[in-house]
Design goal:
One of its GO terms (molecular function) is NAD binding. This protein is of the alpha/beta class. It folds into two domains: about 1-90 and about 260-339, 3-Layer(aba) Sandwich (Isopropylmalate Dehydrogenase), CATH 3.40.718.10; about 100-245, Isopropylmalate Dehydrogenase (3-Layer(aba) Sandwich), CATH 3.40.718.10. Strand 6 (about 125-135) and strand 7 form a beta hairpin. The protein has helices at about 15-30, 40-50, 55-65, 85-90, 150-165, 185-195, 210-220, 230-245, 280-295, 300-315, 325-335; strands at about 5-10, 35-40, 65-70, 95-100, 115-120, 125-135, 135-145, 170-175, 205-210, 225-230, 250-255, 260-265. Strands 2-1-3-12-11-4-5-10-8-9 form a ten-stranded mixed beta sheet, with helices on both faces. Strands 6-7 form a two-stranded antiparallel sheet. The structure holds nicotinamide-adenine-dinucleotide (NAD).
Length: about 350
């Protein structure tokens, strides 16, 4: 019998429980070796424990070092800090991996296959913010301070180059805004140039300013292979590359650290369609595929991919992809095409 691997399951908010249930069903069908410890977080955490980030969840991830996370709702404005950002900090999940590959032909672009790495702990997402009062207005000026450390720049850029080597990728593009944010993103570029020297002859390196990169991703995405960038730029560009392959319902992500890794869909909790049975589970399913690769079970990740490809080839489409299938129909179709 295969050894079971303890893993934390966070069903999440909004469409989270619907897509998590679908993914756990599909993983069961391929006998994925996870032993789930289900934990509430976000709004579900507030409902169950009065805390969006309950202690029991943190303890669970501390024990398992491995989690599959449904999307969490972050209330806008004051009150709670983003649970996603706090989890990344708590477990020092420094690398955010976001692959984008065309799964359905006939969209805007064929054969997209690129991978973006986003620095996950620093930059403007350190969110050190405050207001500066002027005369009678206590909020006259809003100030946000970002920081990047040389050590963290080096760690994420090295991670991207190592990924390129291991996955037979040819080029890493360093994306920055060092012409304006000369220190904050200049340091990232400087480290990028240093790290690249160690990979000379094995992986090509080039550089792009973030605004030009955004335009080129739309004009000619095929010039990119692996992209590595700072936190805020990575957040924006990863949603953009999700748009190249059919939208957020198709884009998985992984938050990786030395001691823990949390896998998730790039999309949010989609409150507009929650409870309707329409949600597309493919992004979270592909995130579970990254999780299988992370534990060394590429064979099972490939089986999942066969199921997804088969379901799409048979014409099944959820509403976000212009079809009419619900979560259950696409889940059944994927299970049908697994082997
Ligand atoms: P969203 O990604 O939830 O939704 C954007 C649009 O995409 C909506 O129309 C939604 O219906 C659609 N959509 C998203 N995922 C889909 C899926 N799997 N199947 C079909 N359609 C899908 O973005 P939002 O509305 O800006 O955010 C909603 C909430 O999610 C917010 O509270 C936000 O903070 C949170 N959020 C969480 C995460 C996360 O947990 N990783 C990421 C992004 C946003």
């Amino acid at each position: 019998m295969t050894q079971k691997i303890p893993a934390t399951l966070i069903p999440g908010d909004g469409i989270g429980p619907e897509i998590s249930e679908a993914v756990v069903r599909i993983l069961g069908a391929i006998e994925a070796p996870f032993e789930w410890d289900s934990q509430a977080a976000g709004m579900a955490g507030i409902d169950a424990h009065g805390d969006p980030l309950p202690k029991s969840l943190l303890e669970s991830i501390r024990k398992t070092g491995l989690a599959l996370k449904g999307p969490l709702t972050t209330p806008v404005g004051g009150g709670f800090r983003s649970v996603n950002v706090t989890l990344r900090k708590e477990f020092e999940l420094f690398a955010n991996l976001r692959p984008a590959r065309t799964l359905i032909s006939g969209g805007r672009y064929e054969d997209i296959d690129l991978v973006l790495f986003r620095e996950n702990l620093e930059g403007y997402y350190a969110a050190m913010e405050h207001y500066l009062p002027v005369e009678n207005d206590p909020k006259a000026v809003a100030i946000s301070t970002g920081y990047n450390t040389r050590a963290e720049c080096r760690r994420i850029i090295t991670y991207a180059f190592e990924y390129a080597v291991k996955n037979n990728r040819k080029k890493v593009t360093i994306v920055h805004k060092a012409n304006i944010l000369k220190l904050l993103t200049g340091l990232f570029l400087e480290e990028g140039r240093e790290v690249a020297k160690k990979y000379e002859g094995r992986v090509e390196m080039n550089e792009r300013i973030v605004d030009a990169c955004a335009m080129q991703l739309v004009m000619d995405p095929y010039q990119f292979d692996v992209i590595v960038t700072t936190n805020l730029f990575g957040d924006i560009l990863s949603d953009q590359i999700a748009g190249l392959i059919g939208g957020l319902g198709m884009a998985p992500g992984a938050n990786i650290g030395e001691k823990a890794a949390i896998f998730e869909a790039v999309h949010g909790s989609a409150p507009d369609i929650a409870g309707k049975g329409w949600a597309n589970p493919v992004a979270l399913l592909m995130a579970s595929g990254l999780m299988l690769q992370h534990i060394g079970r590429k064979d099972l990740a490939d089986r999942l991919q066969t199921g997804i490809d088969g379901a799409f080839a048979s014409g099944v489409r959820t509403r976000d992809l212009g079809g009419s299938a619900g979560t259950k129909e696409i889940t059944d179709a994927i299970i049908h095409h697994l082997s």
